[in-house]
Design goal:
The complex is a heterodimer of chains A (about 240) and B (about 230). Chain A has about 240 residues and is an alpha/beta fold. Helix content of chain A is about 35%, strand content about 25%. The longest helix of chain B has about 40 residues, at about 5-45. The chains are: A alpha/beta (about 240), B mainly alpha (about 230). At the A-B interface, helix 2, strand 6 and helix 3 of A face helix 5 and helix 6 of B.
């Protein structure tokens, strides 16, 4: 479904991504983890073209993304994204947040878009909040709206860029529950996250990144029980100590 | 010299014509200025160096010359420009009112552009990324997502600029157009009623500006997101 091959990117002399390659099959859930500054967010944002890259190519379904490709409308339609800081549109109601791209991008009639939005908001447990504005919701609720907004375009792939990092601890699980049920329904998911419980229990595989490189790609269970690289061992030792 | 406010009554119709012209200039300046200014702001933020350079140059030139000079430029140059385009080189009379309207739109646009640009810059990059990730075409992203937030973030400054604009219409006298202050000044000199006239227009300006700034204040407190 997603094929990343030999992708590199530099900012001046700093190399943000070094020859990254990965294959993600349809329906697979892959977690990207690693220390901060290791290029996780940069890599995930190359997949829907938010970050450009200098070398290599990425294929998502039939869409081929390479340096210099600028028309990405088809790519954006098949890839949904959830951001660390939600990025809901603050001047629009919850319902409008979920309908706007449907009506403007997919040209769906308003009634159909609203039906879809109501269904998705029910699915993430927010039926009672459709007329509210983002500022009236908790962080966890906002992030669930953001997930519904991304799903409204019927994407084939969902990207999550640290979806729970900006949340208070008691709200992390409500978002992870939504992500877990999405994974169970067969969505192809690429997630940058520090939630090791989610990685262990829900993900099929883990990509471990450090210094802009994909250091290790393992089955999730293997990654936690027997990490192959010394860097992954050191990382896990640091984060799993408590 | 005695002070006699009854003179205001007989002067009222002429003062009202002046006031009406001041209001017209303000409305045209605000409307046209914000539309053109917003386009300039978007152009300044463009990644295309030519477009952003052109818009930047325009804004900087307009902001570094006095309004009176722009009025003169438009008054003397626009007839030639139109004549050159459509009338085989013979200048076409444009008239003071139209000149003033064009001038204020072009001049105020430079100031509104900077305010709107500040509004766009106050929006987090994440909002731009969210628009892109959803595949919203640029035009839709600006119209439905970015512009409403930008305007909302700078609305108080935008209205303050409008109050300034309303007070700054007086230089129109240089091409014999008459705004509120111009009207008062003409009657004051004709009748020798300087004190009465200038006090009266002072009160009118004050009432207008004070009401407007109170409105800005109440707007500011109502504009917090989610507070409705």
């Amino acid at each position: 479904m997603i094929s990343i091959s030999h992708v590199s990117k530099s900012y001046g002399s700093f190399q943000a991504l070094k020859d990254c390659s990965a294959e993600i099959a349809r329906g697979e859930v892959v977690v990207i983890c690693g220390p901060s500054g290791s290029g996780k967010s940069t890599l995930i944002k190359t997949v829907n073209g938010l970050e450009s890259f200098d070398v290599g190519q990425i294929k998502v379904g039939d869409f081929r993304l390479a340096p210099g490709v600028t028309h990405m409308a088809a790519l954006r339609r098949s890839v949904g994204m959830v951001f660390q800081s939600f990025e809901l549109f603050p001047h629009l109601s919850v319902l409008s947040n979920v309908t706007i791209a449907q009506t403007k991008v997919l040209k769906r009639p308003k009634a159909a878009a609203e039906d879809k939005a109501h269904a998705l908001l029910a699915r993430v447990g927010l039926s009672a909040h459709v007329t509210k504005y983002p500022a009236q919701l908790s962080g966890g609720q906002q992030q669930r709206v953001a997930i519904a907004r991304a799903l409204a375009l019927d994407p084939e792939v969902m990207l999550f860029d640290e979806p729970t990092s900006a949340l208070d601890p008691e709200m992390v699980n409500e978002v992870l529950d939504v992500m877990t049920s999405l994974a169970r329904q067969g969505m192809t998911m690429l997630c940058v996250t520090h939630e090791m419980g989610f990685a262990r229990n829900v993900a099929n595989r883990v990509l471990f990144m450090d210094g802009g490189e994909i250091v290790e790609t393992s089955e999730a269970a293997t990654f936690f029980s027997a990490p192959a690289s010394a860097r992954a061992k050191a990382f896990l030792a640091r984060i799993l100590r408590h | 010299m005695s002070v006699d406010f009854s003179t205001i009554v007989s002067a009222a119709p002429f003062l009202l014509t002046g006031l009406w012209f001041t209001i017209q200039i303000t409305l045209v300046g605000v409307g046209g200025g914000i539309v053109l200014g917003s386009l300039l702001a978007v152009a300044r933020l463009s990644r295309n160096r030519f477009i952003s350079g052109l818009a930047t140059a325009y804004v900087n030139v307009m902001r570094s010359i006095p309004l009176i000079l722009v009025i003169f430029w438009i008054f003397f140059l626009v007839p030639w420009a139109i004549g050159w385009l459509v009338n085989g080189g013979r200048p076409v009379a444009v008239g003071a009112t139209l000149t003033i309207f064009i001038t204020f739109i072009l001049f105020e646009a430079a100031y509104y552009a900077e305010i709107v640009r500040a509004g766009f810059r106050s929006i987090s990059t994440g909002q731009y990324e969210a628009c892109e990730a959803l595949g919203l075409p640029k035009f839709h992203a600006y119209v439905y997502i970015l512009f409403p937030q930008a305007i909302r973030n700078v609305l108080p400054i935008l209205l303050t600029q409008t109050i300034i604009l309303c007070q700054d219409t007086s230089p129109v006298y240089v091409i014999s157009a008459t705004d509120l202050l111009g009207a008062a000044s003409k009657i004051a000199q004709r009748d020798g009623r300087l004190v009465e006239m200038y006090l009266t227009v002072g009160v009118v300006y004050f009432l207008f500006s004070y009401t407007a700034s109170q409105f800005v204040k109440s707007l500011q407190s109502r504009l917090a997101y989610g507070g409705r």
